[in-house]
Structures are given as structure tokens and as C-alpha cells.
Amino acid sequence: MAVAGFPATALAEKTQKQVASQLEELDARLFEAAFESCQIDIVSGLISDNIEFYHDRDGLSYTGHEAFIADVARDCETGSAGGKRVLVPGSISTHMIGEFGAMQMGVHEFHQIMPDGESIPRERGSFIHLWERKNSAPSGWQISRIISYDHEGVEPG
Per its UniProt record, what InterPro entries does this chain match (predicted)? Predict the structure, then answer.
């Protein structure tokens, strides 16, 4: 990976790979906690107080931690969170943003879980997550910006 014409050092490449791996794990933990296990404390710890969430259908959807977490909790309580998010294999990439953090981009599907346990894809979309290094966060990272776009229905195959 090169930045502004300068080759990356072996240490920088190692750090990039370590961060990418860690953020992929945190990404999986976030979506599992929000959609499947409804562990609001985990979601809360991974979302910054100053979160901004942009959605291609709704525009600026959230501008703070409290409202975002309240909606996730409500979806869990009403059962509307009962789906599954599946990352499209090979779609995720992570790019360092100086000492601030990292940008993670990828494609994911949202699945409906049927009574027999079958997982059926219903929607596909792309995302950008801006992860901020935060010493005060349980994981050392929090998402401060989310851009969710290119949503389209998926025909079951």
C-alpha cells in the first residue's frame, strides 16, 4: 500500500493488516449484537457519542448515540431486529486514516430468518464505516460515521 507516492513500510503494512482484522471482528460483533443477540451494551460500546448515520433512502438518519441506541433497543424489543446481516465474502476493505482511525468499506446482505431457521437474503447494500481510535471504548475503537448506500432487493434463488 502506498500513500502519496511513498511506499509503505513493512511495519505499516503489518499494522494495516492487524487493524483490518480487528475491525472485521468488531464489525461482525456489532451486527450480531444488533440483529441477532440484541446485546445493546455491545452495540453501545462500538458506537461513538457523536455518531452520524447516512442512509441512501432516509438521508441523515442519526446524529447522536442516544437516538441510535434507542432505535436498536426498540427493534430488539419489538422483534423487528430478528434478521441477520451477512457480509459478502471478499468485499471488505480497510484503509488507515492517519492516527485518527480507519475507513472500512464493503457489501452486505440482510437476511430474513424463517421459522425453520432458513436464512433468506432480502436486501443487499454497500457501506462505509469510519472507525475512530478511542482509548475509552471497551474495544479501543468506535464507529463515528456510517454511510449505507446502494440498497436493492435480492430475489431469493
Answer: DUF4440
CATH number at residue 44: 3.10.450.50
Least confident of 36-45, 53-62, 111-120, 123-132: 111-120
Looking at the domain assignment, is residue 6 inside a domain?
A: no
The residues, any chain, with a CB within 8 Å of residue 94's CB and separated by 6 or more, are 16, 19, 20, 23, 24, 102, 103, 104, 105
List the grid coordinates of 63: 446524529
Q: Position 112: which residue type?
A: Q
Single-letter residue type at 142? Q
Cα separation, 85 vs 154, whole angstroms: 13
* Distance (Å, whole) CA 54 – CA 73: 19
Is 90 exceeded by the pLDDT of residue 7?
no
**Three cell numbers, residue 30:** 456489532
User: In 3D, which of 129, 143, 127 has the Cα closest to residue 45?
Assistant: 143
Find out whether 43 and 34 touch, Cβ atoms under 8 Å. Answer: yes
Segment 112-119 shows an average pLDDT of 86
Asked whether residue 5 is domain-assigned, the answer is no
CA 150 to centroid of chain Cα atoms: 15
pTM over 0.85: yes
How far apart CA 146 and CA 130 sit, in angstroms, is 6
Residue 156, amino acid: P
